Amino acid sequence: MADSSHGTPGTTVAVGSTGRQLDEFDNPGLPPHRPRLADRDPRAEKRAERQVALLFAISVVGTLLFFVGYFFIPLDQTIERLRLQNLMLGLGTAFAMLGIGVGIVHWAKTLMPDHEVTEDRHDIRPESDRQDAEKIVNDILDESGIKRRPLIRNTLLGAALLAPLPAIAIFRDLGPLPGNALKETMWDAGVRLTRDPSGTPIRAADVTIGSAFHVIPEGLNEAEHKLEEKAKAVVLLMRLDPNELNPSPGKEDWAYDGIVAYSKICTHVGCPVALYEQQTHHLLCPCHQSTFDVEHEAKVIFGPAARPLPQLPIEVDDEGYLVASSDFQEPVGPSFWERG
């Protein structure tokens, strides 16, 4: 078994584990370079350059075709228009991607240098790193021929700038930006708390110690985007002994006579917090077992949730019904919604 090698330049000597020379052979070196047609014939080189430029131009045309189909073919509920638009979108995307992809491959195969080179390892000299990096970049540019081939350079720039635009345009169909939609709900000062799903208002006297109600804001059932609003506004309502609550400064009036309301949307990944343990006053998310302590402002005591459930400030109106004092003071739902 060979474990080291030494010898004169150009010769490789294999040495066994016992130090005995096993074999000796000449370094074969690199295979001879076989010039391509474009390397020998200037006309073939020029023809290859025009072919690469044509492929990049096809990519530009494909991008423009995509935009024509996307913006200038109105959909009028007819299958013919839909088919035409899909055809132009598909062909435009195919030509845009295929043109620039094949063009770059053809450029590399026919015009860029294809000879193999070797370079001996050398010690890295920090003071010359910048000069070495600059030389490498200049060598790459010289070998690619992009400096002396403006036709390829210009068509490549056009294709590269236009090719990503169809993907950006498609993102437009994903819908408008959320804006403040993740930070605002239907809750507001004076909005009554109602039972889910009936929408019946809840009196403070109806909430006994140990009970829990699934609550939605009044008017949710008639809202235009009912499901979207419910996903943010649904609340769990519970009543504890007021002496068991531990509100932080500034939140002493967020509860009413031991009645507290917390968002039902788990701050982990948005699952519904549906289980309430009467004896421990813990809220449990059954999806990933995040557990929240109602006595201490629904702080996380177990599980992957990163922050407490947002609390809804509540009070009682003149008729004895529970109403919100304001909207939530922080975004509801998963923690990443805070960055929305």
TrEMBL record:
Its cofactor is [2Fe-2S] cluster. One of its GO terms (molecular function) is oxidoreductase activity, acting on paired donors, with incorporation or reduction of molecular oxygen. It is found in: Cell membrane. Keywords: 2Fe-2S, Cell membrane, Disulfide bond, Electron transport, Iron, Iron-sulfur, Membrane, Metal-binding, Oxidoreductase, Respiratory chain, Transmembrane, Transmembrane helix, Transport. Iron-sulfur subunit of the cytochrome bc1 complex, an essential component of the respiratory electron transport chain required for ATP synthesis. The bc1 complex catalyzes the oxidation of menaquinol and the reduction of cytochrome c in the respiratory chain. The bc1 complex operates through a Q-cycle mechanism that couples electron transfer to generation of the proton gradient that drives ATP synthesis. Belongs to the Rieske iron-sulfur protein family. This is Cytochrome bc1 complex Rieske iron-sulfur subunit.
